[in-house]
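Changelog-adjacent note: as of this version, every example in the card shows the full chain rather than a window. The one below runs 222 residues end to end.
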Amino acid sequence: REGEDSLRRNMVLFLAFSDKPPSEVKSRGASGAKHNAILERQNNPNEFAVGLKNACCKEPLACCCTCICSFTGIPACYYRKKVLDTFGNGIEDYVCCQGFIPKTCCLDFPNMCQGSACGLCCEGCCCPIFSLSIARLHLMDAKQLHPDPTDYQIIQFSNCCQILSCFCDILAMFDESFEQLAEIIDCIADLITASVAGCMGAQITHEIKQTGTAPVPQSMTR
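Full-length structure tokens:
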């Protein structure tokens, strides 16, 4: 317990971010409904066997492999399929983004690429970090898990770095003096994102190991 408290105190960079989920969702319609459903996961009765902050130490090999290859899409495809195989009927239960993204304009994501291995590969390779997050959300639904409070801080910190990176890139488009700064921030933000992805991969790996053989659900997650 003392070790965990010490680790929490030393995570200075994350202290500026809340360890609590948003209290409400501002979006409306189908998008708002989906976001509210995600927000409701904070009320799930179970917790991850290991939080993101400790996942690397629990599963160092999974963490390193996922981190190094995170932008290739290989870890995303692996973990998406691994969760589908462990908590469902495998690739047969696959749909684009596993139904977490609502229908948008003419794109009906909840009904796209059903049972398609090619669709899974395209999702993982085109949106590798997002697809890895989808695998984590799917796992949370399957096991009724809520995140560790520090998970919120780590993910918010990573997202904030990416937003800062985008902001610097936009500035560099109008002022060439920002180009080198933008490149440095891009590199730092990507390294942080890859590190968080590695922790997610380790967390998913450890949670599946703790699960053993899970019962097959009656219907796929939508």
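Structural remarks: The CA atoms of residues 68 and 169 lie 24 Å apart.
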